[in-house]
Amino acid sequence: MHFLIENTNSFLNIFTIIINQIQDKWNYWFERNPIFRSLSGYAFTYQFCLFFLSIIFYLWYTKQDSDSNLNNHIKQTKKSYPSSTTTNKKSNEL
Predict the structure, then answer these.
(1) pTM for this structure?
(2) What gap in Å lies between CA 69 and CA 71, rounded to an integer?
């Protein structure tokens, strides 16, 4: 039982060290940087949400439009060729 508790504590220590490293990097790169700090404040506003949703809608719409154009193009290229029995035969008059 003592062995299990030591292993659990060492795992928690490693986990705590990893979390602290991530928090330190986050603090250094994002919270101290004024550009990232201002962008993160903007990310939760309704303007950003509307802008982001409009970009997603535009990308979805253009994909749907290109798919329908591709389907129309495939339908137009599949022409039915008349068989030899239904063609207009020319008379052999000279």
Answers:
(1) 0.33
(2) 5
